[in-house]
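[Q] Does anyone have a clean structure-token version of this?
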Amino acid sequence: QVQLVESGGGLVQAGDSLRLSCTASRRTFSSTAMGWFRQAPGKERQFVAYITWSGGTYYADSVKGRFTISRDNARNTVYLQMNSLKPEDTAGYYCARTTAITTVDKEYDDWGQGTQVTVSS
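[A] Here you go.
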């Protein structure tokens, strides 16, 4: 199995920035896209962004203009740069891989363990 490991979360103030990283245990050329999801306590898992193998991106409306997803294929790593953070962004953030172009969490195959992002007001 492909293991995904997230890092970079933390406790920040509103308006601050964080960059999350997700590194895969092996290169996955079969992956159509890598995605980021988030889940706050008591809430459904929410799509954040995805990036295709060649670099095409798509964002949820709630993060558009503030978050940027990118990847370094040579390092098997995907990043999520989060700027202008809001308390509403507080959640566990998870990366995942998919063989489809999709925002649906059930269509993603492998998932990381998550990294916590907490934004104080």
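[Q] Thanks! Anything notable?
[A] The mean pLDDT is 94.
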